[in-house]
Amino acid sequence: MREQLKNKQIMLAPLAGVSDVGFRLISERYGADKTFTEMVSVNALYYDNKKTNDLLFISENEKNCNIQLFGSKPEVIEKVIKDKINYIEKSKEISFNMGCPVAKITKNGEGSQLMANPKLVEEICKTLRKSTDKKLNIKFRLGIDDKHINYLDIGKIAQDTGIDYVILHARTKDQMYSGNANWDHIRKLKENLQIPVIANGDIFSVEDFINVIDLTKADGVMLARGAMGNPFLFKEIKDYIKTGKYSKPSPIEIIDQLIDQYKLELKYKEEKLVVTQMRKHLSWYIKGLENSSKIRDLVNKLKTIDEVMDELENYKSTLKG
């Protein structure tokens, strides 16, 4: 069984508000083969929005971070890639998002809403290919809803237009993140394409990784919610592939890694921003630990990094293992 798991790529998904430089670096340390920036709007880049430009930052310490873009206008996509993205030497790949189901993205005809317009998808894929020599992938879903399942068509368009590989989140746009990902569709996509297929959706454990590869024969997996507060999952999967065994982190190891992320984030962001942005990460890290809700509520009221560090050290002293 472990033989078929070898050489499968384990990637960190481009998660808005999550996969910043700090978390990407940590994921790499634990074994992520590839990471991606948070979704970057080509429209905002076109108009030189500073906050959006900042999302393109890749640290010199990152080994394999790549850019993910979203948009819907081929002419804007081409100009942005040629004028800005091609010059980012650290990024060897461009991922294009056709899978985000969030309303503020889809209402503009972007993200997963693009799947309702296969002709535009084809035009975008052709534009991507002619605009860059970088490796390309597109990330998409099963379709708009259960009555409009067209991922096989989108996958074939990607393949025929020169996209290097595809990533399938096995839910529809309307499902958002509810219900279960239907991995059987990933299997069908893999059977119908010659380019690599990466599985995405409901991979929260080593066992999920084993099962999705066994069922779909996908070329790798992309961890999304399963990695939030749990970068350890990358190491657990890699350990299992190598040895057939893995171990979960102890409560103290979890807090130590949380503290390390705070320190790492401070290298790239101002203290006030780190304190507020890390609140969601803390909640994910400590979920299920003893007195976690009490600590979460307490830390959420703190305003300085020193206060947060003191509280986490105190909390750690109450934990076992």
From TrEMBL:
Catalyzes what? a 5,6-dihydrouridine in tRNA + NADP(+) = a uridine in tRNA + NADPH + H(+); a 5,6-dihydrouridine in tRNA + NAD(+) = a uridine in tRNA + NADH + H(+)
**Pfam families per UniProt:** Dus (PF01207)
Alphabetical UniProt keywords: Flavoprotein, FMN, NADP, Nucleotide-binding, Oxidoreductase, RNA-binding, tRNA processing, tRNA-binding
Which residue positions are annotated as catalytic? 100
Residues the entry annotates as binding FMN: 68, 139, 169, 224-225
GO molecular function annotations of the record: flavin adenine dinucleotide binding; tRNA binding; tRNA dihydrouridine synthase activity
Q: Which InterPro entries match?
A: Aldolase_TIM, DUS-like_FMN-bd, DUS_fam, DusB-like, tRNA-dHydroUridine_Synthase_C
Annotated ranges, domain DUS-like FMN-binding: 11-314
**Top-level enzyme category:** oxidoreductase
tRNA-binding as UniProt keyword:
yes
Cofactor(s) needed by this chain: FMN
Keyword NADP part of the UniProt annotation: yes
| EC code(s) of this entry | 1.3.1.-
* Family stated for the protein in its record: Belongs to the dus family.
Provide the function of this protein: Catalyzes the synthesis of 5,6-dihydrouridine (D), a modified base found in the D-loop of most tRNAs, via the reduction of the C5-C6 double bond in target uridines.
The protein's name is: tRNA-dihydrouridine synthase
Q: Which organism is it from?
A: Anaerococcus hydrogenalis DSM 7454
Q: What is the lineage of its organism?
A: Bacteria, Bacillati, Bacillota, Tissierellia, Tissierellales
